[in-house]
Amino acid sequence: MSETTPPTDHSEELLRKIQEYNSQLEQRIQEHVEELREEVLIRKRSEQALRESQRRFQTLVEKIPEVIFQLDIDLRVRYLNGAWSVITGVQSSEVLSEPFAGLFIEQTATELQRKLVDLVNGNTESVSLEGRYLRPDGTEIWLDIYADSERDTDGSINGVFGMAYNITRRKLAEDDMKRALVKEKELNRLRSQFISMTSHEFRTPLASILTSSELLEHYSERWPREKNMMHLKRIQSSVQHIVRLMDDVLILGKSDADRLVPEPVPVNVNQLVASLIDEHTMGHKATQHIAFTNDMECDSALLDPKLFRQIFGNIFSNALKYSPPDSTITVSLAGDCALLRLSVNDEGIGIPPADLAQLYEPFYRARNAGDVPGTGLGMSIVKRSVEAHGGTIHVSSSEGQGTRVHIILDLTRNHSQTPQTPAS
Ligand code: ATP
Ligand code: MG
Asked: Ligand 1 in contact with 102 (CB < 6 A)?
């Protein structure tokens, strides 16, 4: 058994110091632990606050009624908020990683892609574009797209973020306004043309009515009956001319207001065409040869005789007016009770190619019409009447050689009308 040596003063002093250091160390450790605990607590609180603020921000972004998007550097969708699904009808999750521009209608897609590429290449500050989008239900919407570049802390571009507003209503209202403006302008143009037309076209028959009536007033008792009759006839035909002009303008007015609705009744088209040919050739003492062929396999077709009179009358009177004496005008009728085909060919002055495009514009006359009388209303009335009847018109012409007008009328339209006695 070893003998323990009693502690010296020196070792006592050492032990005391060690204990003192120890307690100081413990105290420091305790303080550090406290500090750390505090720090952890603060960090936890700030993390929670951050999470809370992120959650609030996310809810805000998700709930905002405008589209918010984030794209990666390849311009593919990284994030789209809930408004995308509401506005486009396609779930945001379905288009994740899709090229963003490609989601839009072709024209918008090309332009948007070009602008976004410029943006990520640093060539532009931001992107702004009004683009079109086709929803799965087939409706088209307009989006006002705004995008900016997203940068890393070192300033390099790492993606794109932006917003898109649904501006469809505004666009539709703009379109409506544009259409109304065009219509208004067209109406104003027609009005001024009508005023200048009336002063020209009405003046001659009105002057002739005035002259003949004045002559009759002063000389009717002295003149023989034939001369009186001649002046009376002149008055009558001048009045008829004015009535025809008024009718033309009325039809145009009706078709502009979409009130040109056909009233179909069963009609013997063959008889109607034959009588219209007689009316025009006798009334105008035509010298052309008329070849009329009827291959129509239907004795009683459902059509509006008033509109048909306008259609045939105008086409046939043009053929007479614009072709020389002794030439031949061919009228052919074909089709059945569902589809009527009518063509009128002449060997006249023809229509210059440059004028063909404007043939159906009211008051338009081809440059080679020269002194041939006319107001330029006939063909626009024909076109509107044909279209009101669900039909099509095609005119081919070669200057100096002749003109061919071909018309197809859909006779199955408005079949719900009660058939009445055939009219011719
Ligand atoms: P109206 O209102 O009295 O019929 P218009 O005959 O001048 O006058 P449209 O029938 O509308 O008017 O024809 C427009 C223009 O087209 C004519 O002015 C004429 O220049 C040209 N045109 C129409 N049909 C023929 C045709 N068969 N041959 C040559 N030119 C034609
Ligand atoms: Mg005409």
From this structure: no
Residue with tokens 């009588």: 275
Give the angle 381-383-384 at the CA atoms, nearest 5°. Answer: 65
Going by alpha carbons, the residue nearest to atom 21 of ligand 1 is 366
DSSP 73: T
CB 407 within 8 A of CB 391: yes
Closest CA to 98 of 123, 71, 116, 117: 71
Please say whether the beta carbons of 167 and 143 come within 8 A: yes
Specify the ligand 1 atom closest to the Cα of 349: 29
Which residues make Cβ contacts (< 8 Å) with residue 22, sequence separation at least 6? none
Is the CB of residue 99 less than 8 Å from the CB of residue 107?
Answer: no
Local structure of 299: helix, strand or coil: coil
pLDDT tens column, 275-303? 999 989 986 677 899 999 999 999 899 99
CATH numbers and ranges of domains, the chain = 64-166 (3.30.450.20), 173-256 (1.10.287.130), 265-414 (3.30.565.10)
10 Å Cβ neighbour count for 265? 19
State mean pLDDT over 212-218. 95
For the chain, report the end-to-end CA distance as a whole number of angstroms. 151
8-22, 41-55, 64-78, 80-94: least confident range = 8-22
The 10 Å Cβ neighbour count of residue 406 is: 16
CB of 277 closer than 8 Å to CB of 294: no
**Are the CB atoms for 168 and 141 separated by under 8 Å?**
yes
C-alpha atoms less than 13 angstroms from C-alpha of 295 in its C-beta half-sphere? 7
Report which protein residue has its CA nearest ligand 1's atom 25: 318
The pTM of this model reads 0.58
Q: How high is the pLDDT of residue 202?
A: 83
The DSSP bridge partners found for residue 274 are none
| 423 band by pLDDT with thresholds 50, 70 and 90 | very low
Give 101's Cβ-side CA count (13 Å radius): 20
SS3 223: coil
Is the distance from the beta carbon of residue 314 to the nearest atom of ligand 1 less than 6 Å? yes
Kindly state the helix (H) or strand (E) to which residue 282 belongs, with its residue range. Answer: helix 269-283
State the DSSP H helix or E strand holding residue 403, giving kind and residue range, or none if neither: strand 402-410
